[in-house]
Amino acid sequence: MRQVGVIGVGEYLPKRVLTNADLEKMVDTSDEWITTRTGIKERRLAAPDEATSDLAIKAAQKALEDAKLKPEDLDLIIVATITPDMQFPSVASMLQNGLSASKAVAFDISAACAGFVYGITIAQQFISCGTYKNALVIGAEKLSGITDWQDRNTCVLFGDGAGACVLSEVKTGGILSTYLSCDGSKMDLLNMPAGGSRNPASHETVDRRLHYIKMQGNDLFKIAVRSMTEAAEIVAKKAGLGLEDLDLIIPHQANMRIIMAVAKKIGLPEEKIYLNIAKYGNMSSACTATALCEAVKEGRIKKGDKVLLDAFGAGLVCGACIIEW
Ligand code: ACO
């Protein structure tokens, strides 16, 4: 089996910034509530004519440049998203065309906030067994398009963005262990009810605001803390490491209080946790993807460091992996 690692990273955040002060003018909320309950200060919003694939392609181009690869070197493109441009074809197909990655097979995966880690895990399997050489994995979302801007329970949480990484065979380090889980019995806690085959789009579904994210945040909070803690413990054990051996944790950025509760449970100091939640909010699959990219660019990850990605989201899914840089 070949050892697989990250050889390039890239990100793209749309230009428009929506602050908590802006939200105060839209719904009955306050900067104080949002900051203390979530840790979010602002988030990015894609332009009306910018779709998920537009964000994804810019992140992908940067990751390819960072990896010093050409699009035609790619064998596999996986896009993790819950906000594709359209029901079909996949965003990955759009990228394959947009990048001119003519050799690559391409598909999307739907694993919500854990999608980037799910994508890395899938790509690792293909590369380690020798089926493919170079894979591009992207977490990209335009959550603003499925956010109900009249619902203060959810609209303060989400934002848009994209992060990408290129995976290939490496001589040293690389992915040490991965762990995925799913508990479909609790899928009703977080979903978008309409627009699929269960409730196709109709006047009624629009009138009932069913094309927006519905979330029972309080129930999810507790499950998120438990699941992300468990995932960190399992994936460290699988890698033969203690949690204290980790140099940096890149958690899903849904809520600062969730992240700090997980850090406390696994006994790691704040300086080992990478945070970008204040700037971007919850961008689902794009959270861990952009955070990994920013951590590399800011020099927070050095050669030999052991980095944990740990994410939780709708499904309910959880995904974690440890990468030695
Ligand atoms: N401004 C002011 N007040 C608000 C707001 C707001 N934006 N939103 C809710 N409130 C009010 C509520 O109405 C409630 O008022 P009440 O007590 O009078 O009924 C009060 O604040 C407390 O509401 P809670 O829902 O209990 O607030 P909580 O502290 O749980 O925070 C939050 C809510 C931020 C959503 C939190 O529960 C959370 O982060 N949950 C987890 C989300 C998550 O992890 N999702 C999975 C990943 S996302 C994905 O997969 C796409």
* Class computed from helices, strands and strand pairing: alpha/beta
Number of alpha- plus pi-helical segments:
11
CATH superfamily of the largest domain: Thiolase/Chalcone synthase
| Spatial strand order of the main sheet | 1-7-6-4-5
> Could you tell me how far the N terminus lies from the C terminus, measured between alpha carbons in angstroms?
19 Å
Largest sheet: 5 strands, mixed
CATH architecture of the largest domain: 3-Layer(aba) Sandwich
Number of domains: 2
Q: If you consult CATH, what is the topology of the largest domain? A: Peroxisomal Thiolase, Chain A, domain 1
Q: Can you give the mean pLDDT?
A: 97
Number of distinct beta strands: 13
> What's the CATH C level of the largest domain?
Alpha Beta
Q: Hey, roughly how much beta strand do the residues contain?
A: 15-25%
Order of helices and strands: EEHHEHEHEHEHEEEHEHEHHHEE
Query: So what's the oligomer here?
Result: single chain
- Cα gyration radius (Å): 19 Å
What does this structure look like?
The chain has 325 residues and is of the alpha/beta class. The protein has helices at residues 20-24, 31-38, 52-67, 91-99, 115-128, 152-155, 203-207, 217-238, 256-265, 277-280, 286-297, and strands at residues 4-12, 16-19, 42-45, 76-80, 105-109, 135-142, 160-169, 174-182, 190-191, 214-215, 248-251, 306-313, 317-324. The protein folds into two domains: 4-172, Thiolase/Chalcone synthase (Peroxisomal Thiolase, Chain A, domain 1, 3-Layer(aba) Sandwich); 176-324, Peroxisomal Thiolase, Chain A, domain 1, CATH 3.40.47. The protein contains eleven helices and 13 strands. The strands form four sheets. The chain has a five-stranded mixed β-sheet with strand order 1-7-6-4-5, with helices on both faces. The protein has a four-stranded mixed β-sheet with strand order 8-13-12-11, sandwiched between helices. Strands 2-3 form a two-stranded antiparallel sheet. A hairpin with a 3-residue loop joins strand 12 and strand 13. Helix 3 (52-67) packs across helix 4 (91-99) and helix 8 runs parallel beside helix 9. The longest helix has 22 residues, at 217-238. The chain is globular, with a radius of gyration of 19 Å. The model has no long low-confidence stretch (mean pLDDT 97). Residues 29, 33-34, 37-38, 112-113, 152-153, 156, 190, 217-218, 220-221, 224, 254-255, 258, 282, 284, 313-314 line the site of acetyl coenzyme *A. Acetyl coenzyme *A binds next to helix 2, helix 6 and helix 8.
